[in-house]
Amino acid sequence: MGIAERKIRQREEFRASILEAAWQQVISDGWQSLSIRKIADAIEYSIPVIYNHFENKEAILLEFTKEGFQKLADTLEGVKAQHTVPARQLEAMAHAYWDFAFDHKEFYQLMFGLGIPACDRVNEIEELKNATSIMISTIKAAIDESNHPETDYFLKYHTYLSILHGLVSIQMIQKEGKPDAAKKMILQDAISGFIISINRINS
Amino acid sequence: MGIAERKIRQREEFRASILEAAWQQVISDGWQSLSIRKIADAIEYSIPVIYNHFENKEAILLEFTKEGFQKLADTLEGVKAQHTVPARQLEAMAHAYWDFAFDHKEFYQLMFGLGIPACDRVNEIEELKNATSIMISTIKAAIDESNHPETDYFLKYHTYLSILHGLVSIQMIQKEGKPDAAKKMILQDAISGFIISINRINS
DNA sequence: TTACTTTTGCTAACAGTGTTAACAAAAGTA
DNA sequence: TACTTTTGTTAACACTGTTAGCAAAAGTAA
Question: What distance in Å separates the CA atoms of residue A114 and residue B113, rounded to the nearest whole number?
Fold first, then answer.
């Protein structure tokens, strides 16, 4: 008798329909406004049934996080296979990473814990400009002293800030605790590379 | 008569006490669990009085965001002043940036919209390891082909990922919209620098 | 088919959240 | 003292995630 099998199948379908409804919510209004109630509403069931399939709301989001990382892995692998020289592979993967992030923005934000209050208003903060101008002026000075004074300082500023922010936030995601002095080598490494790149023509 | 002045002063003090209470909440439980009700409780006033001084909860958080950026700007400026060569300034500023982020974690998370569900569980995601291993293997291959096969591949992987994530998330914060193809030059620039740094000894 | 067990889904509630309308009390002004 | 403005309160609205308790449906065994 296939009753047990059918039940498992139905359960799986139900679970999938929850995720489907949840995902519709996420892509239409962002994951911050996802709510159990809206999911229940969309699948036309009462609220508690969702808890028969997922421990809590976080478990639903975790599902998407996993899916996102797998999608990213697949993308990277596919792109990597199209090249043979490692340096070209790294380059192609970088572009694929970038494309993935913006083509699947909701996934990416979920995966890396991004997206918060007032993110759209951050550009209007005067204090931000103070910090920005200090960095830019230094970059400018460094470029002026280099062999390539025609370098785009604004581009280099973005690179500089991105490296710093990337290092910090990756570190914050992975470690709950403190700075971890040894990890500062990564910072030193990245900044050294950046400074070198100012004094050299990029290939 | 100094009545008006006193009133303004008292208003200012009240406002400050709200921020003070809010900040205590933030540093003890993280900004995600900050609530108007808890603030009201801490200052021993009813809830609506807070809305006499701040338009909404977001306005309170924005206050801290501003404060954070100003703190960062001051820190960078102070560190910069201790050096004369721009390259050294950039280096020192990078370290100061790092220290700031971890010494004022709550500020930093607020400033860059970090901190979300399941951030501590992200390391246990199997799918993450899939994506990781693809990148690491490529980095390894690139190092093997370089003039410095003794390079720490794990360090380089972190640098690579940090650059990518930094670029993406900075871009996501600043722009609501789409990829912006021209901005991809920043990516190309950063990755080129990274690849160069694999083939060179860091100064 | 009947009697029993398990699964499934429901209503209703608890404990929170941000926000606001309506009103009372205090403070300042004439 | 009478009036106006500011300030603060209670109580509610409209949401959140989550769960206890119960009814109905589905499956099982006689």
Answer: 6
3-state secondary structure at position B15: helix
CA atoms of A102 and A147, how far apart (whole Å): 35
Is B187 within 8 Å of A98 when comparing Cβ atoms? yes
Q: Which residues, 6+ apart, have CB-to-CB distance to B106 below 8 Å?
A: B26, B27, B30, B31, B64
Which backbone phi and psi does B82 adopt, to 5 degrees? Answer: -85, -5
The CA distance from A181 to B105, in Å, is: 16
Residue A176: band (very low, low, confident or very high) from pLDDT cuts 50, 70, 90? low
Which residues 22-51 of chain B have a CB under 7 Å from nucleic chain C?
34-38, 47-48, 51
Q: Which residues of A150-167 are buried (b: 16+ CB within 10 A; e: fewer)?
A: ebebebbbbbbbbbbbbb
Rg (CA), chain B: 23
Protein CA at A52 to nucleotide C1' at C6, angstroms: 15
Q: Which of B72, B125, B155 sits opposite A65 (nearest CB)?
A: B125
Contacts of B202 in chain A (CB under 8 A): 188-189, 192-193, 196
Mean pLDDT of B115-140: 79
**Whether the predicted pLDDT of B179 surpasses 90:** no
Tens digits of residue pLDDT in A82-125? 999 999 999 999 999 999 999 999 999 999 988 665 556 677 78
Please answer yes or no on whether A66 and B162 come within 8 Å at the CB atom.
Answer: no
What is the residue-averaged pLDDT of chain A? Answer: 88
pTM of the model: 0.91
CA of residue A75 relative to chain centroid, distance: 14
Query: Residue B203 pLDDT > 50, yes or no?
Result: no
Cβ separation B176–A98 shorter than 8 A: no
B201 CA: distance to closest CA in chain A (Å) = 9
Spatial CA neighbour of A108 closest among B179, B101, B109:
B179
CB pairs under 8 A between A and B: 322
Amino acid at B145: E
- Which residues in range 10-39 of chain B are in contact with strand D, contact meaning CB within 7 A of any of its atoms? 11, 14
